[in-house]
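Reopening: Vinorine synthase-like still failing for me.
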Amino acid sequence: MQCPPDKISQPEKQAIDWFHLSKLEMEIQIISRGTIKPSSPTPHHLRTHKLSLLDQLVPPVNIPVLLFYSAAAENPRKSSLQLKESLSKTLVHFYTFAGQLSESFSIDCNDNGATYIEAQVAIDMSVVLKEPEIDLLLQLLPCDPHENLPEPSAQVLLAIQVNYFACGGMAICVCVHHAVADASAVATFLQSWAAVACGANLTETVTFDCTSLFPPQDLPGFWEVLEENKDLIIREDVVTTRFLFDSSKIDVLRDEIGNGSSLHRPTRVEAVSALICNAIVASIAENDKTIPIYVATSVNLRKRMDFPFPQNCVSNVSQFIMTELPMEKTKNLTNLAGNLHDSITKVDDEYVRKLHAGGAYLNIMKGAVKGFGKNWIFSFSSWCRFPFYETDFGWGKPIWFGTTLRLNRVAFFLDTNDGGGIEAWITLTQEEMVKLEQEPSILDYATFKPST
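Support: Ran it again with your exact input. Result attached.
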């Protein structure tokens, strides 16, 4: 597959200011750059979309997803046109993705459109996938995931870059602003786009409005606290390492934890979370045995609440659950996994409604952000079981997918391509990462490329 046969002017280099971070600079030529608008206008009664409290509280970042496809026999002209036309049709249903943020906690669904870029990459895709480091993957994105423009209306809510590699492989890289979607919602969008590309008609109603359950609130105090601590959460002096836990090692770990005093055999996410927590706390204890330690776990609420709307709600329908971990209780993996399990299973319809009815969740989030510099808070966000590997545009399913979201002291869990393992993308300071990589338990269960 050669680069798409659009009329190519003198190729321009994409001036991305974070390119210099990568150890390997890829030669990328922009073939085309434009805007894809919905194929039909958004009805007037849907033009203003109110953000919910959960939309308001997300960090000001884009959610990046990179889908890699092996070379196919599909005609390049057909695949290029197919992606553009199907995206235009899909945006009719996902109209919030084609709008503009306003300062009044809402989206103006004005059919502004999505940024759409096509690029030719001078190397083979295997070079990237052999060791997919985050700074290398960043070069394939249409924008900086941490780009936060001063004017909300200038923020692009959906940007896409389709990269064609020299070998004929393709990477479809998408950035969705977090204010309009969480990772589950991004997966729903990609599934819908792929279905339309294969000829399907979207008949199921897409639901966006969560304000009935999570009404927006005035957040001046929260934004002040967030601004004061932003550099601790989104900071530049951090490193991200990809830890690979294959399914066989996870099975051994689950059996080891399940054979303890608890009768509960942990899920693979619980087991790997407990292992990482145990290793991180062990490295912290070398310097300070008194610092308060908290674990924040992102919980998808779609299947935990008696929703008055469909499960495929496209919005932010996830919230963090904070768990305090006394130092002495983190040494036993069975107890640790049990604590994490209990903190998640308590989240049901009644729990969530009570938490939001009295404003407790907002206070918890304020306290978490405010205490980020005083307490040791580590967060887990699992994307496992989200159907990214099922995203077939007509030339097969992805051979690998990844993300480049880099937030300090956060681990993102992704499925391996066989569905049984976990890729844990963990971001820490250089000093913290070196200690984690030297922990015996991590060395026993994970494979990774050392950060130094």
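The chain has two domains: 12-197, 220-445. If you still see a failure, please send the error message rather than a screenshot.
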